[in-house]
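Lab notebook page, bench 4
Experiment: in silico fold of construct C2
Operator: M.H.
Input chain length: 171 residues
Purpose: comparison with the prior construct
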Amino acid sequence: MAQFTCEICGAEFEQKSLYERHMLTSHPKQAVSAAEIEKALKGIEFPKTRSELVDALSDDEQEVHDIVRQLPDQEYRDAAEVARAFGELRTHEDAPHNQPSKTGGQRSIQAPSAARFASLFDGISFPATREQLINHAHRNASEQEMQKLKQFGDSHYHSMSDVTQELKQVN
């Protein structure tokens, strides 16, 4: 009888090292996305400095803590500005200065944010189909958000990152 069983796919292993290698290669942990950072910042009053953001984050958000500590030491006006700085940190490129967090364009105000969508799917089990996403979100989603969900492709979404990518496609 195997001592170690993968909770994701059910593969069984006699040795812990083989189980750990399986987890790293077959089910690698996904990197933190901008949407997850915005979700972690939900409810935080802005403006905040980098150190104030670190202090305000929940202790169970260690990966987000680590990322926020790496952001430029400045005052952030909103979660979108934090996500913008994260994007620059991740790509090592400056984002254009006509970003919604800088210009506040009407389209960005009307379009549902990735953080808002992340909050709609709090507690959902992935992978999920479009119909499962719609059923999970229907109690808290606005009519506009439901319309966006109905435009999603009929596929399986394996994580919030997949949902975020699909949201970009339909916006």
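Observations: The radius of gyration is 19 Å. The chain is about 55% helix and 5% strand.
Next step: discuss at group meeting.
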